[in-house]
Design brief:
The chain is α/β, with parallel strands linked by helices. It has helices at residues 9-15, 36-39, 58-73, 77-84, 127-199, 203-233, 246-263, 284-300, 355-359, 365-375, 433-443, 456-466, 482-490, 509-516, 529-539, 549-555, 566-592, 596-613, 616-630, 634-642, 644-655, and strands spanning 21-25, 31-34, 87-88, 103-111, 117-125, 242-244, 267-272, 279-282, 306-315, 322-331, 379-385, 389-402, 419-421, 424-429, 448-453, 470-474, 500-504, 521-524, 542-544. Helix 6 packs across helix 10.
């Protein structure tokens, strides 16, 4: 055998062509052979190394030494188990922090032809495998971190969701409480204002009361807007579709703003395309709300010029079952800069600048419009130029077309002054004395015996003791509330027959439904007299007068023309000629669209004609029109103007 290290031909014969590393050592731990697989991986001149211990540090070599010697001596079964153990041969590798390749192998005995025993170190390269395992471990650690982060994120999102839900619930409770707290004093403000308006005849004082009433109703509108926005954000605003005449709806909104437009000398016009169906299945209340907001803003932000409402659309199918309804509101007002045209549809956003203090408002109207239109799968857009006006376009898609037969019957106008109640006992329950006083003031003219209770407990006691014909029950009271009191009343066989009408400032529909599970009806605060009388008439015996005396003088037709003098009869043809000519032209103009001032001028013109020709009926007609214009009674103005042709016809008959 060749004794030169690493060059033994016998070892080369056996191990030279193997695809693994081979290092052969003798019993003195002298390196007798290293094949090329190992040499390629060792630093230069490593083939000169003679002792195996030169490859290892001292601590590692102690273990290797024992294993190799046991292998060479091959003395026990323990040696076999050691032989089969993997081991590490220190080949350098820059891929690892300690610069050592992760390789291992087996140590096995080898006896050559001369009978000498050697230890054969079989080396395999496990570095790629180790790298792979290391990468897997690192990936696993990264995955664990990601899972931990995700779990933490999910936990944070869950907590955030709970916090948001709690905040939303708290907001809803707050808004409901605020609604109640604001509606309660407004109930007294508007209620007593309504009573005073009936009692006071002085026009200046009536005007002051009208301003109080208008301001109070504006505050209620604001509260309703806030509640609407809250319900929309909470996903609790439900659309209520019904068969509706769009022509009547748009005309009603126009008439609603005629007075406001006339006060500012604005022209308010409505144009409706003839192809609009007579009846559509829509949410009439919400579309009216949208129109009121848009037209109200147009009047508010326009000082001179016009306001136009246009309605059009087209059928979406050959059968004319569905219709795309489009409408616009255009004004010649202050306009909106481009930078603000998106922001105006956000809650509490308004056009910023010097106009904010002048026009006021909260910026809720357009935000609510946008959200309602979104709920209807519709679209709203604005085009505007500063100083030139604005135009808002609304498109509601695929609205179901209905038949006129499906329109609900028109409700008959309820005249509270025509009701005469039979004697009855009414129990008024409210923990706020001023609210009880208000109801009592509304009912004092009737033949009622009025009882009062300041709590739910007291209401039950008085109901049992007096057995009234009807109970007006406030819902939110300290102690036992109205619902709890009503439950006990309805469970008592002696008094369960008594109708209970809830009086509530609650505006949330779900809570109103809960109230109606126990109460027979309800009145929403602020309570208006006409609503109160209407509810009472549903449960108490009553009769109706044909015409209340206090309204007869206002609504009855003008009496026939009294006998005229010979001089008057002589000038009558000339008067009729003037009435059918110039007067009729003026009448047609103001009947179409006119300001209050123009109506007053026409009334004065007719009054002068009546005096000039000594026709008292003509003078009285002009005075009536002037009085209606003075107090802005739009319905009476319209009624009086409609009678003008008849007035002329009566005079013509006198000439025949």
């Amino acid at each position: 055998m060749d004794s030169r290290p690493h060059q033994s031909s016998n070892f080369a014969h056996f191990f030279g062509n193997l695809g693994i590393g081979i290092v052969v050592v003798d019993q003195n731990l002298m390196v007798r052979y290293i094949n090329q697989w190992v040499l390629k991986r060792l630093p230069p001149h490593s083939d000169k190394i003679q002792l195996l211990q030169d490859f290892y540090d001292d601590q590692s070599f102690i273990f290797i030494k024992k294993t190799i010697l046991d292998t060479i001596h091959y003395k026990s079964v323990k040696t076999i188990s050691q032989i089969l153990h993997s081991w590490i041969f220190p080949l350098p590798d820059n891929r690892f922090p300690d610069n050592l390749m992760r390789q291992g192998g087996l140590i096995s005995p080898f006896v050559d032809t001369s009978g000498d025993t050697y230890a054969v170190l079989q080396i395999r390269d496990d570095s790629d495998k180790v790298l792979h395992i290391q990468k897997l471990r690192e990936a696993n650690r990264d995955l664990e971190k990601q899972i931990t982060v995700r779990q933490q994120t999910e936990h944070e999102l869950k907590e955030a969701k709970q916090a948001a839900e709690q905040a939303n619930q708290a907001k809803s409770i707050f808004l409901a409480n605020m609604s109640h707290e604001i509606r309660t004093p407004m109930n007294a403000i508007l209620g007593f204002t309504e009573i005073l308006e009936q009692l006071i005849q002085e026009e200046q004082y009536k005007h002051y009361l009208s301003l109080i009433s208008t301001s109070g109703k504006s505050l209620l509108t604001l509260i309703n807007d806030i509640l609407d926005l809250s319900k929309i954000e909470a996903g609790k605003l439900n659309l209520e579709y019904r068969h509706t005449s769009p022509l009547s709806l748009f005309e009603e909104v126009k008439q609603m703003f005629m007075h406001n437009a006339s006060e500012k000398e604005l022209t308010l016009s409505l144009t409706i395309n003839q192809e609009i169906p007579d009846v559509l299945y829509i949410d009439e209340i919400r579309i009216r709300q949208i129109l009121i907001n848009l037209v109200g803003n147009a009047v508010k932000f326009t000082e001179h010029g016009h306001i136009k409402i246009g309605v059009g659309g087209e059928y979406t199918d050959a059968e004319h079952n569905h219709f795309n309804l489009s409408f616009f509101v255009e004004d010649s007002g202050i306009g909106i800069a481009d930078v603000y045209q998106d922001a105006i549809f956000e809650a509490f956003e308004q056009k910023v600048g010097k106009h904010l203090a002048k026009y006021g408002g909260t910026g809720l109207g357009l935000a609510i419009c946008k959200r309602i239109i979104d709920l209807m799968d519709g679209e709203i857009c604005v085009s505007s130029e500063v100083g030139m006006g604005s135009r808002f376009d609304v498109l509601l898609k695929k609205i179901q077309v209905s038949s006129p037969d499906e329109l609900p019957p028109m409700p008959q106008p309820f005249n509270a002054d025509s009701i005469e109640f039979a004697p009855a006992t009414v129990l008024i329950v409210d923990d706020i004395a001023i609210n009880r006083d208000l109801i009592a003031a509304h009912l004092q003219k009737y033949s009622f015996t009025l009882l009062e209770a300041a709590s739910g407990e007291e209401a039950i006691e008085m109901a049992i003791k007096h057995q009234p014909d009807l109970i007006l029950m406030d819902i939110k009271m300290d102690g036992m509330d109205g619902v709890a009191a009503t439950k006990l009343i309805k469970n008592d066989k002696k008094i369960q027959f008594i109708p209970v009408i809830a009086m509530t400032a609650i505006a949330i529909k779900e809570e109103v439904k809960h109230i109606l599970l126990y109460c027979d009806s309800y009145l929403k605060k602020p309570i208006q007299r006409v609503d109160l009388i209407s509810r009472l008439a549903s449960f108490l015996p009553h009769s109706e007068k044909s015409e209340p005396l206090d309204q007869l003088s206002e609504q009855e037709p003008l009496p026939g023309t009294p006998p005229l003098s010979a001089e008057t009869l002589k000038g009558l043809p000339q008067l009729i000629h003037q009435l059918e000519g110039e007067a009729t032209e003026k009448w047609q103009h103001i009947s179409d669209a006119a300001s209050i001032d123009e109506i007053s001028e026409f009334a004065s013109y007719i009054h002068v004609l009546g005096n000039q020709y000594q026709v008292s009926s003509l003078t009285a007609w002009g005075d009536r029109l002037a009085q209606s214009a003075k107090i802005f009674n739009l319905s009476e103005i319209e009624h009086t103007l409609q009678g003008f042709p008849e007035l002329t016809d009566d005079l013509k008959k006198l000439c025949e």
